[in-house]
Amino acid sequence: MPPATIGIVGGGQLGQMMALAAKSMGYRVGVLEPTPNCPTAQVCDFQITAAYNDQAALRQLAQASDVLTYEFENVDVDSLKAVEPLTTLPQGTDLLTITGQRLNEKNFLKAHHLPVTNFAAVPTAADLPAALKQVGYPSILKTIAGGYDGHGQQDMNSAADLMVGQTLIDQAGTCILEQRQAFTKELSVMVTRSADGQVQTFPVAENQHHHHILHQSIIPARVSVAIQQEAQRFATVIAQALKLRGVLGIELFLKADGQLLVNELAPRPHNSGHYSIEACNISQFAAHIRSICGLAIPPITLQQPAVMVNLLGQHLTVARQRLPQRPQWYFHDYGKADIRQDRKMGHITMVGSDQAALIQSFVSEGIWEAEEEK
């Protein structure tokens, strides 16, 4: 119960929004992050400035915290296990072992009879031709850990891509080859589970990406109720199988024939769930805090349709300039010091009863025109 201390491993925007939710409930918050004055540190009580796998620093955070959580999946599992006796780690480390490694994740989903794309493990560069024969073209070669926003991936469209794919394996080690799917929409759903096992799902979001980076989320997704319910059913199966605590993000593909495929899992709040801060009765961040702290979670409802767009480095300055004349914007600036091309710097959410008008309003801004896919 508040005013207990929550320690967060990772100091980016997800940690920042977790901290804001926790602080509003009366908790103290600390963060372990190597970047001084990171986004999370700007809104919490203390920062330990050190690498995520620094055992002494992680021990210091654990000893200062009643509850420990993490804001991204690439946390060193062995380091977390070493400090488990010092604090409470409601999410455990099995969740990271599964979701932080793509082969583990795909095998977990397959074992629980959830539909995924055809895939094959590629331990060495010499194994790539056999994997391509099994999976076929077109496909995507991915590192099994550490990739995000298109990093650590290589499109495999023909035999001409074999050499560049083998180079990726030589550099990164074991990879996974996934069959590329022709899908009509990308969807996502956030799910949470309370300490007593009650699962709650958020509304299904429809996501549009530009150059492998999430550009826009539309809520509710413009799909049938049956498809939304199927996505939420998948989410419930996953949450129960993982004995989930906190929030989990689930990315899905919708194929032309109406079949849903589970693409990826994220063991923490997700970019496409940011809309929930303004559009739902409880945000994904408040749900995460309530879950890890053992508080009951209310039934989650969408109060108004919403559209959210990301602000990358190339968008932030223009958006800041327009903010004084945009009272309809819920403007979130993460406070990152270094503004870079394609770096997530913030997001904007709009809510209202006319979903099409919300979408058109962002189109009319023109800020994101350069991001259109060619």
What is the average per-residue confidence, as pLDDT, rounded to a whole number? 95
CATH H level, superfamily name of the largest domain:
ATP-grasp fold, B domain
Query: What CATH architecture label of the largest domain applies?
Result: 2-Layer Sandwich
Element-by-element helix/strand order: EHEEHEHHHEHEEHEEEEEHEEHHEHEEH
Task: Please give the alpha-carbon distance between the first and last residues.
Answer: 51 Å
Shape: globular
Contiguous runs where pLDDT drops below 50 for at least 5 residues: none
What percent strand?
Answer: 25-35%
| Total beta-strand segments | 17
> Would you state the CATH class of the largest domain?
Alpha Beta
Counted by DSSP, the helix tally is 12
Query: What percentage of residues falls in helices of 4 or more residues?
Result: 25-40%
At the third CATH level, what is the topology name of the largest domain?
D-amino Acid Aminotransferase, Chain A, domain 1
| Total individual domains | 3
Walk me through the topology.
Elements: E1 5-9, H1 13-24, E2 28-32, E3 46-48, H2 55-64, E4 67-70, H3 77-83, H4 94-99, H5 102-111, E5 119-122, H6 128-135, E6 139-143, E7 153-156, H7 162-172, E8 175-179, E9 183-193, E10 199-201, E11 205-210, E12 213-219, H8 225-242, E13 246-255, E14 260-266, H9 276-279, H10 284-292, E15 306-312, H11 313-322, E16 330-333, E17 344-351, H12 355-365
Parallel strand pairs: 1-2, 1-4, 2-3
Antiparallel strand pairs: 5-8, 6-7, 6-8, 9-10, 9-11, 9-13, 11-12, 12-15, 13-14, 15-17, 16-17
Helix pairs in contact: 1-10, 2-3
GO molecular function: 5-(carboxyamino)imidazole ribonucleotide synthase activity; ATP binding; metal ion binding; phosphoribosylaminoimidazole carboxylase activity
Enzyme class: ligase
Organism: Loigolactobacillus bifermentans DSM 20003
